[in-house]
Amino acid sequence: MSAETAELTKVDSAISGFSSSPPDEKKGHRRASSSAAGVYNITDLEKEGKELLIAKETQKLNWKLNTSPATLDEKEVLKKFLTTPPVKKIDLHFPLGLEVTARNLKGVTIKDALDAIHKQFKKKADDELELPVLAGFEWDKEESWTRLIVHQKKEGAPSAGGKKKKNKSGEDE
Question: Is 133 within 8 Å of 64 (Cβ atoms)?
Fold first, then answer.
């Protein structure tokens, strides 16, 4: 029994304040170095009055919001910056009120934006989405400098399958 209590007192004394590292040494902030040169904070751009240009490639993607961006054929487009100048973070605002944020300290790319959108819609079925295809982004500095408006459309490029629902009255749409 005395051997067990001796062992416990050793453990207790180790917990009560002895440590191998000095207690008051603080490490410097390392996060600042992880952002790339030439990548801006969007609020700084607003203060300076710098305009944003959105990559035109986003309009030609015909990407479905509930599919992974990795399924796109144009892999090179995904690596391009979403905006010029590149920003660390941007809010993507949907017309119905949903807002997602795309972040990348090295500059938000088209893939980062699509990933953020996909995360919101990946569990939705095709028929649950009224406008399932990305039409592009719009920057309206009058409304909000720090966010892009997401535009959606019903269908992408001509697809093989069409609607096969028939109306009883015989009229289309």
Answer: yes
CB 40, CB 81: distance < 8 Å: no
Question: Which amino acid makes up residue 114?
Answer: L
Inter-residue contact 151 to 137 (CB < 8 Å): yes
- pLDDT category at 171 given cuts 50, 70, 90 is very low
What three-state secondary structure class fits 135? Answer: strand
CA–CA dist 115, 70 (Å, integer): 9
- Report the chain's mean pLDDT, rounded to a whole number: 79
CA–CA gap between residue 43 and residue 150 (Å, rounded): 20
Q: How many helices (H) and strands (E) does the chain have?
A: 4, 6
* pTM of model > 0.85: no
How far apart (Å, rounded) are the C-alpha atoms in residues 18 and 126? 60
Report which DSSP code applies to 64. B
